[in-house]
Specification:
single chain; about 50 residues; alpha+beta; two-stranded parallel sheet; 2 helices; 2 strands; globular
Length: about 50
């Protein structure tokens, strides 16, 4: 199975976040990365979304 570069960057960004982190989240892939982190290993990460 092959992965696109955008998918690999999303996973790498998600792995960089921890439960104690506060993250300003953009739309698109940054949002996907933050939510992946929250759902997999960082349930207490604080996400602040741009408007």
């Amino acid at each position: 199975m092959s992965y696109r570069a955008a998918e690999m960057m999303t996973v790498a960004a998600a792995r960089a976040l921890g439960s104690e982190d506060i993250c300003f989240v953009g739309i698109g892939l940054p949002s996907a990365a933050c939510n992946l982190a929250r759902l997999t290993h960082a349930p207490s990460v604080t996400l602040i979304y741009e408007s």
